[in-house]
Amino acid sequence: MELLSPLSLAWLGLLAPLVLLYVLKRRRERRIVGSTLLWEAALRDLRAERPWQRLRPHLSLLLQALVLIAGALALARPTGAGQVPAGARLAVVVDVSSSMAAREDGQTRLERATGLARGLARDLPPGGAMMLVAAGAEAEVLAAPTSDRVRLEAALDRLRVRGPGADLEAAVALAAERLRDAPAGSRVVVFTDAAIAGTLVLDATVPVEVRPIGEALSNHAILALDVRAHPSEEISDRADVFVRLARFGEGRGEVRVRASIEGGRELAARRLTLEAGEPTGLVLSAELPPDGSARGALVRVELETVGGDDPFPLDDVAAAPSPAARRLPVFLVGDAPPAVTRVLSADREVELFATSLARLAERGADAPPLDGLFVYAGPTPEAAPPGDSLVVAPTGDAVFGVGLGAPVARPTLVSWEEGDPRLRFVRFADVHLGAIRPIEGGSARALLTTDAGPAIASLSRPDGETTLVAFDPADGDWTSRPDFVVFFRNVLERARERRAAGGIAPGALGAPLRVPAPDGARVGVTTPSGRALAGTSRGGVAVIDVPAEPGVFVARVGERERFALRNLTDAEESDLSPRAVFSRRGGAGGVATVEPVEHREAWPFLVGAVLALLAIEVLWGTRKGAAA
Question: Would you say residue 89 lies in a domain?
Answer without folding.
Answer: yes
